[in-house]
Amino acid sequence: MKYLIESRNPLVKELFLLAKKVAPSLSTVLILGESGTGKEVLAKYIHFSSKRKGPFVAVNCAAIPEDLLEAELFGFEKGAFTVAVKSKPGKFELAEGGTIFLDEIGDLSPKLQAKLLRVLQERQVERLGSERPVKINVRILAATNKDLEKEVKEGRFREDLFFRLNVIPIKLPPLRERKEDIPLLAEFFVKKICAREGIPEKRLHPDTLKMLTEYSWPGNIRELENLIERALL
User: Fold this and answer.
1) What are phi and psi of 31, to 5 degrees?
2) What is the distance between the alpha carbons of residues 98 and 111, in angstroms, rounded to a whole number?
3) How far is CA 48 from CA 44, 93, 105, in A?
4) What is the pLDDT of residues 22-37, one digit of tens each?
5) Consecutive H or E run containing 88
6) Angle at 129 between CA 123 and CA 130, to 5 degrees
7) Ranges of residues in the chain whose predicted pLDDT is under 70
8) How far lies 37's CA from each of 11, 84, 174, 218, in Å?
9) 3-class SS at 172?
10) Which pLDDT does position 4 carry in this prediction?
């Protein structure tokens, strides 16, 4: 996370100053931005800059089928469905005292949007197969690469849930709009990957840095990291 707070871009510096200011609170933060812009890294920065002692639990809402996602988020009791041979807590309970990060929240189904709204309002969850609510002390951070205001207007996302999530919005710019950070990020990834893979540390040639800076990076920071790793290996 070091490279994030060493940004040379004035807008990104302001965003991470805002993130640091809101980190100690319990307020919900909605992180917006294209895929690969570092939304989960920002969420971790907020969590680890807070005083919360519990874990950081991340859930990709787009990667889990809807019928499984409900059980994954809220947990279930033994016998709630055919293969539920024992009770299991959901991600909200596992994040007790810490932070839950709901990535790709714009992909939630209407049913799960309604359940999440209730969690935000009541600060409690109900496991599948149970009518006993469980109180939770969890900070909620959410992220999406979708335009949620447009999703609301077109009826695909609940307006009341959007307002509950949009307490503190932080929109990360794409890498092509913060090109002055590309050398900083590239050097960070070189050091990180060399240390991880046991490779003698390399230095980037000025011509290479020039080429990296001139590229448009449709995959953003994730694409840059993948390219550096491929080149080193």
Assistant:
1) -100, 120
2) 25
3) 6, 19, 21
4) 999 999 999 999 999 9
5) strand 88-89
6) 45
7) 1-5, 79-85
8) 14, 38, 6, 10
9) coil
10) 52
